[in-house]
Design brief:
6-stranded antiparallel β-barrel, 16 strands, alpha+beta
Length: 357
């Protein structure tokens, strides 16, 4: 009975906010009265406890577009409740608002709090939107470069004693380093070409991360120390400025317009069997309006079929595409984006469709 009343209220909220019937927010099975956040939780995982569509968290949390980029911080030990004390249902931290005592019959729990003081900076210890460990290697490394960036990138020209294989702790020499760009650099090697499968446009070239370097002396030929090497480094490899450290606090939300694209690469050269919590590259980026936090649905074409009473056995009917999962965009370039497969009922294949859910 409780769940049916809640579902009706959520449906009413969708209509009040201007949504259509298709925008109904559906509760998860066995929705909890309350949930205590623990270390290792993510916003996605918490919302999945309350909602069948975890990316609808901001709709029920009541965040506007600005707040989506700087959401309420949530920490281990916080209690999350589904609150019906206002005009529309809201997810909130227990003790972070609510209605009058006379509205208590609409609450899923009655708050009982004891005073406490949290001594920590705003972001320290706050949970991330998605599992940080699965995307950490993709956050600060140069992943995609265009043709001009590749031409302009500083180049390693030599190692010590004319060695052709370099590693951490070695001194090396590079041309094209500008002193105003700072001393810290990443070392990369041009990798896969990323090409649009439909238009054949070259969208960029993937940069294979090799390690880190620090310039010790600037000049026409600069001297540098290789401070980290995850792969062998050699003359001819390139340098790039490290990307700024990126926040993981973005809340999942749907694009504001209809977007359709394709998966064009997996985490390596594989074209199939990309599993949940692995990274995919899609052929849409800043220029198409993609931003960090966007959630896109995964679709795969079903095979065409011959109608049962067809006279011509070559006649085919195209069936609707099958929706089978969701991806969460966490890094965006001009023409491509990197996304984490959050859930899927089958492996993701290159060329599968992504679009606004």
């Amino acid at each position: 009975m409780k769940k049916s009343i809640i579902s009706l209220l959520l449906l009413a909220a969708a209509w009040v906010s201007g949504g259509a019937l298709a925008d109904e927010i559906k509760l998860a099975d066995n929705v909890p009265d309350r949930y205590v956040v623990i270390k290792g939780d993510t916003l996605w995982g918490i919302s999945a406890r309350f909602l069948k569509d975890p990316w609808r968290w901001p709709d029920v949390w009541g965040l506007n577009k600005d707040e989506i980029k700087n959401p309420h911080w949530i920490y281990p030990g916080d209690v999350i409740v589904l609150d019906f004390t206002g005009n529309t249902p809201r997810l909130r931290r227990d003790g972070a608002g609510g209605g009058k005592d006379g509205d208590a019959e609409w609450r899923l729990m009655d708050a009982k709090l004891s005073p406490s003081i949290r001594r920590q900076s705003l972001a320290t210890g706050a949970i991330s939107s998605i599992p940080a460990s699965d995307i950490q290697p993709f956050l600060t490394r140069p992943l995609v470069v265009d043709g001009q960036e590749l031409i302009a990138a500083p180049t390693l020209v030599a190692g010590p004693e004319s060695r052709v294989v370099l590693s951490a702790g070695d001194t090396a020499f590079a041309q094209g380093v500008v002193s105003g760009d700072g001393a810290d650099w990443s070392v990369f090697r041009p990798g896969r070409n990323l090409t649009d499968p439909d238009t054949k446009e070259l969208l960029g070239r993937e940069a294979v991360y090799l390690g880190d370097a620090q310039i010790s002396e600037f000049g026409d030929v600069s001297t540098l120390l290789l401070t980290k090497a995850v792969k062998e480094i050699a003359p001819g490899d390139r340098l790039a400025r490290p990307s700024p450290v990126q926040s993981l606090s973005y809340v999942p939300h749907a694009p504001g317009s209809a977007i359709k694209g394709r998966v064009i690469a997996g985490p390596d050269d594989s074209v199939s069997e990309i599993a949940a919590l692995q990274v995919v590259v899609i052929n849409r980026g800043h220029r198409e309006g993609i931003e960090i936090g966007h959630v896109l649905a995964l679709y795969r074409d079903r095979p065409s079929v011959t109608p049962p009473n067809a006279v011509n056995q070559n006649e085919k009917i195209k069936l609707p595409a099958e929706r089978y999962g969701l991806v969460f965009v966490f890094r965006v370039f001009d023409k491509v984006s990197y996304a984490l497969v959050m859930n899927s009922t089958q492996p993701v294949n290159v060329l599968d469709v992504v679009r606004t859910p």
